[in-house]
Specification:
Elements (H helix, E strand, L loop, with lengths): L1 E6 L7 H12 L4 E4 L6 E5 L3 H8 L5 E11 L2 H11 L1 H4 L7 E8 L5 H9 L17 E8 L4 H4 L6 E10 L4 H4 L15 H10 L7 E4 L6 H8 L3 E6 L2 H5 L7 H7 L6 E6 L13 E6 L10 E3 L8 H10 L9 E3 L2 H15 E14 L14 E12 L2 E10 L7 H7 L10 H4 L1 H7 L8 H7 L5
Parallel strand pairs: 5-6, 8-9, 8-11, 9-10, 11-14
Antiparallel strand pairs: 1-3, 1-4, 2-3, 4-7, 6-7, 12-13, 14-16, 15-16
Helix pairs in contact: 1-2, 1-8, 8-9
Length: 455
């Protein structure tokens, strides 16, 4: 049976990856018949009405799903399709209360026009009462209009759909987990909508173990815990995890939402100095790594262990003190991306997912490549526009079973890669481009041309 999904009008490149991930979580056989990022309407094939409801019940980006009765470029054609293909369904609703809605995407209809469109479906043999509140059945006329159709005064939509409401998405979760209502946040806390979408795409579900190695105030483990997963996390800065204690802490955030039983553990470490053993036990890793813009990226350690030997010895004596702050050294942004993928390949179960955010520039010449790993297959690359000067991507990978891994490529990957550079800008190309305003880097020839020879 065909169904029509009505998405929200945001995060267009995230829509299909979320729905496809939810089909895996719910064990639903999903086939996408037609979809475009330019439209909030997606036509899919599903085995049953129950499957349609299951597919959408935890979707953050989908508003509703409808039993598809027809799609056409004109109303005359739509009526012909409805009469031809759906007469076998009509008898089920002859005595039901009902109403018909109109959803004009990028368009507008006057009250008179809406009434005329609704009355054009008068051939449907529905004898039940019309109820605007809580009817037994709800039908919707969807219109896809060209952009700026209202100021251009365009007469007709590009496409029209008709369907019967089946189920709703979980858009209300965005307000439930709104950061404005959360007891403890920081400047880097991920907003509720994208945290929940990330958890969905990463296949968070009951009985699964999820981990965030850059946990901060816990936005991702909280989102995963809402969907039933057990959340673990770590951070190089224990202050962000502990907060002020009580309600103003990561643990307090879990308590605020009644998710304490799904809080695994939180600890202080960085990805290159992790106490986790390399055992493939994690079902998912979700994170938003630091980009190193405000300050250079750091990891635990000394820049020069020989020169700073006294600092190492001091750490051995005082590391158990509550006030101990371990030394840190500069860290390469690109090395961090490699370390995330290497870590994921070591700890994810077969088909477990890694979903992490990384920056990119709008200028194609400045775009950072999507990192790859022989043990990981790229599932989806979703892009969020932040400003006119930049964007960021959510990249999702699937851990391949060992039998599918290219062993020769893996051997090459494991060869040591020496990181060059010493300053924060040397080690972080995104930071360098960010502070240049995403403008092309000036060469020595450009500089010379700015000061012509006056002799």
């Amino acid at each position: 049976m065909e169904y029509l999904i009505r998405f929200s009008q945001s995060h267009e490149t995230f829509r299909l990856p979320e729905i496809q991930a939810l089909a895996i979580v719910e064990g639903v056989d999903l086939e996408v018949i037609s979809y475009s990022d330019e439209s909030p309407f997606c036509l899919v094939q599903l085995p049953s009405e129950d499957a349609a409801k299951a597919l959408l019940r935890r979707s953050v980006l989908a508003q509703t799903i409808h039993e598809h009765w027809g799609t056409a470029e004109s109303y005359n054609e739509l009526h012909a399709i409805v009469k031809r293909d759906t007469t076998h369904l009509w008898s089920q609703y002859t005595q039901s209360s009902f109403k018909i809605n109109i959803d004009a995407y990028q368009g507008s209809r006057s009250s008179g026009q809406k009434l005329a469109l609704i009355n054009s479906f008068a051939y449907l043999p529905f004898d039940g009462p019309i109820l605007l509140l809580s009817p037994d059945q709800e039908f919707t006329i969807f219109e896809q209009w060209e952009f700026n159709s209202v100021p251009l005064n365009l007469p007709n939509p590009l496409e029209v759909h008709f369907g019967r409401l089946i189920g709703y998405g979980a858009r209300e979760l965005i307000k439930t987990y709104d950061l404005k209502k959360r007891g403890y946040i920081s400047t880097t806390s991920m907003d509720s909508e994208l945290a929940l979408v990330t958890a969905n795409i990463a296949l968070a579900a009951p009985g699964k173990i999820f981990y965030d190695p850059f946990v901060g105030t816990g936005s991702f483990p909280i989102a995963c815990a809402h969907f039933g997963a057990l959340g673990f996390g770590s951070d190089i800065d224990g202050r962000s995890v502990r907060g002020e204690g009580g309600k103003k802490s990561l643990q307090g955030n879990f308590r605020q939402y009644g998710l304490e039983k799904l809080l695994g553990d939180m600890f202080v470490c960085d990805l290159t100095n992790s106490p986790l053993r390399k055992a493939r036990i994690l079902d998912g890793i979700v994170c938003d790594p630091p980009y190193g813009v405000r300050e250079g990226l750091k990891v635990l350690g000394c820049r020069d262990p020989e020169k700073d030997a006294w600092l190492v010895e001091k750490g051995k004596r005082t590391y158990k003190n509550p006030s101990f702050v371990p030394p840190k050294k500069p860290y390469s942004f690109m090395a961090m991306l490699d370390d995330i993928l290497n870590f994921a390949s070591d700890v994810l179960v077969d088909n477990g997912r890694l979903s992490f955010w990384m920056p990119t520039a709008n200028d194609e010449e400045q775009e950072l490549p999507v990192p790859t790993h022989p043990c990981l297959s790229i599932v989806a690359v979703c892009t969020q526009l932040i400003e006119s000067t930049g964007s960021r991507r959510l990249i999702t990978y699937r851990r391949l079973p060992d039998m599918e891994v290219d062993l020769s490529a893996l051997a090459l990957k494991k060869q040591d890669q020496q990181v060059k550079g010493h300053t924060a800008d040397d080690l972080n190309p995104f930071r360098r481009v960010y502070f240049r305003g995403f403008k092309p880097e000036r060469t020595s020839g450009d500089v010379a041309a700015s000061f012509p020879d006056e002799s």
